[in-house]
Amino acid sequence: MAAFEKPGKLMPVVDLLNHSVCEMTSRIAGFEMHRIFAVSEDLSNWKTFLIRVKGDYTATVLMSAEDPVFYEIARRMKRQNEISKADIAVYVTEYYNIMCGFFVSAFNRERNLSARFGIPEYLKRAYIQNTKLNHDTVRLFYQCAYGKAVIDAMGFPL
Amino acid sequence: MKKVMIVDDSPFVYETIGSFLEGSEFCIAGYAKNGEEALSMYEEILPDIVTMDIILPGIDGLETSEEILKKWPDAKILMISSLAYSGTILKAQGLGIKTFICKPFKREGLLNALKTCAET
Questions:
Q1: What ipTM was estimated for this complex?
Q2: pLDDT in tens, chain A (158 residues)
Q3: Partner residue facing A119 (CB), from B55, B103, B104
Q4: Residue A115 falls within a domain, yes or no?
């Protein structure tokens, strides 16, 4: 992937993750995610998808978003005007699988590491809390036409 | 028409492949949502090509491929996965799988990969 080629210099996790979120959302769901500085909303009602990465390193990536964001991703993937709650879980799980696969694969290639993850978990509750971040956590905030989202990548060797 | 069996737990992938195969020389002959289903379905329909995801509930796509290739060494498997780095690709190659495409894929990429897989 040309966007990741930086001979002699590792691309920071934050840039790899941001590229993965923006590129994959555009390609899979067909709308744009824009990075913002922070969100002021209460995250307690936001649903969350999570993957656990295991191999040469152990890491977690989770994404929380307002309901309309996940609804729109699923609706566009299914190409139907109305979808059920079950559809949201099924289609966003695949969106998240592809997006995280893109990110983890790029990270592994850049660092010459090996690690895999299983099927994304749908938590149906907010996982991200407004707490102080650990030194190995990258947190990114996004805005799109349907609402806001937060993504945490924890445990990736920096 | 060449028969394709899809092994993927995501209906999105099944629907996408189905729409991409319209008007091509390939048709969907079976859809398995996990490795166990794939093993029993393979024997029933004996597809020309299997599209195999890596991340599956239960036994994963690499293990499922290994089982299929043990029983049917001439089976043609196209690995389709979001996890595309040397580790997974080398493991797939070690099993004798020669074709691999990444999610998300486009119609042209899928059809080219299926043709390559069918010819190997």
A1: 0.89
A2: 344 444 457 788 999 999 999 999 999 999 999 999 988 887 878 899 999 999 999 999 999 999 999 999 999 999 999 999 999 999 999 999 999 999 999 999 999 999 999 999 998 777 666 566 777 889 999 999 999 999 999 999 97
A3: B55
A4: yes
- The CATH number assigned to the domain holding B90 equals 3.40.50.2300
Specify the number of domains making up chain B: 1
Cross-chain Cβ contact B84/A101 below 8 Å = yes
Ramachandran angles phi, psi of B81, nearest 5°: -150, 160
Task: Tell me whether residue A33 is in a domain.
Answer: yes
Asked if residue A5 is part of any domain, the answer here is: no
Task: Give the CATH number for residue A50.
Answer: 3.40.1550.10
Residue A138 CA to residue A143 CA, distance in Å, equals 17
Question: Which residues constitute the domain of residue B75?
Answer: 2-119
SS3 A7: coil
State which residue of chain A sits closest to B56, comparing Cα positions: A119
